[in-house]
Amino acid sequence: MPITRFTRSPRDPQAAPARLPRRLTQLYGGLTLYGVSCALMVEAGLGLEPWGVLHQGLAELTGLTIGVVTIAVGALVLLLWIPLRQRPGLGTVSNVIVVGVAMDATLLLFPDTRTLAVRVPLMVLAVLLNGAATGLYLAANFGPGPRDGLMTGLHRRTGRSIRLVRTALEVAIVATGFALGGTVGAGTVLYALAIGPLAQLFLRMFAVAPASDLADPPANRTPVTGMPPGHAIIRP
User: Fold this and answer.
1) 8 A C-beta contact, residue 130 and residue 191
2) Is 113 buried (19+), middle (13-18) or exposed (0-12) by CB count in 10 A?
3) For residues 129 and 190, is the Cβ–Cβ distance under 8 A?
4) Of the candidates 61, 38, 74, which has an alpha carbon nearest to the alpha carbon of residue 181?
5) How far apart are CA 130 and CA 220, in angstroms?
6) What is the pLDDT of residue 13?
7) What is the mean pLDDT of the chain?
8) pLDDT of residue 56
9) Of 53, 100, 114, 137, which has the maximum CB count within 10 A?
10) What's the rounded Cα separation, in Å, for the pair 138 and 233?
11) So what's the pLDDT on residue 3?
12) What's the rounded Cα separation, in Å, for the pair 226 and 236?
């Protein structure tokens, strides 16, 4: 589901250095919360988000922790940015490391869940937290995550629509992850249906710019992804 997000031009007086501490807090708080939410989905055991299915499958195959696999895959995807001529930001590089570390830390601290009465609410909570985390880190405006940069890069290079590129990429990722042993289930479906509206809601809530500006952006703003207004990214 598309989310339009805009960034202020460097000449905008409201984009002052005083906003930097808030933006950094949102960035690292959002990425940490994203890792926590992904770990809770793993604990719930009812299905993961598309890239999570791949990460879990690779973890099963290699014997590495899912957090380490998340970091490794993020780094490899970031290398694919080079031929696509994508430019990473602080948020892009931070995403590669912080999400995986937060996942492993949460899985170490969180007790195993066995009963369905616990796992179902945990799954719902994880999706809600993921939406909040997405809004936090995107609103900080430090660049897209490596996986979304891959999507937008392929969009630019191939000329195909964002919808088509994203769908094809995620279908391939889920199929590969499932074949390797990743979990696909109700959580995967819930995530697919809910993450767009949740990210939209929390993006407006945490935006540095007023929500009214996001709804009616001035002419001196450009899309953060470099894409036409009306397209956006919603995951790290």
Assistant:
1) yes
2) middle
3) no
4) 61
5) 31
6) 45
7) 82
8) 97
9) 137
10) 9
11) 41
12) 16
Task: Report pLDDT digits (tens) over 74-122.
Answer: 999 999 998 888 888 999 999 999 999 999 999 999 888 778 889 999 9
Tell me how far apart the alpha carbons of residues 185 and 188 are, in angstroms, rounded to a whole number: 5
3-state secondary structure the chain: CCCCCEECCCCCCCCCHHHHHHHHHHHHHHHHHHHHHHHHHHHHCCCCCHHHHHHHHHHHHHCCCHHHHHHHHHHHHHHCHHHHCCCCCHHHHHHHHHHHHHHHHHHHHCCCCCCHHHHHHHHHHHHHHHHHHHHHHHHHCCCCCHHHHHHHHHHHHHCCCHHHHHHHHHHHHHHHHHHCCCCCCHHHHHHHHHHHHHHHHHHHHHCCCCHHHHHCCCCCCEECCCCCCCCCCCCC
Of 129, 106, 103, 110, nearest in space to 190 by CA? 129
176 burial (CB, 10 Å; 0-12 / 13-18 / 19+) is middle
The one-letter code for the residue type at 102 is A
Q: How far is residue 143's CA from residue 193's CA, in Å, rounded to a whole number?
A: 24
Give per-residue pLDDT as tens, 121-141: 999 999 999 999 999 998 898
Contact 173/53 with Cβ under 8 angstroms?
Answer: yes
Please state the length of the chain: 236
